[in-house]
Amino acid sequence: MKRNIFGIICIMLCLCLLISSCGKEETTSEGSDNTDAEIAEDTPVIPEEEVKETFEYTLKDGEATLDKYNGTDGEVTLEETVIKIKKKKEKKTVTETVENADGTKSEVEKTVEETVEVPEEYTLTAISAGAFMGNENLKKVIIPDSVLTVGDAAFQGCTALEEVVLPKGLEKISDRLFYGCEKLEKLEIPETVTTVGLFAFGDIFNPSAWYANLADEDVIVGDGILIKHNGEKETVSYSDEVKKVAYYAFYGTPVKEVYFTNSVEDISDLAFYRTEATVMFPAGSSKISEFKTKGFMIDTYTPGEAE
Question: Structural domain of residue 226, as residue ranges?
Answer without folding.
Answer: 215-302
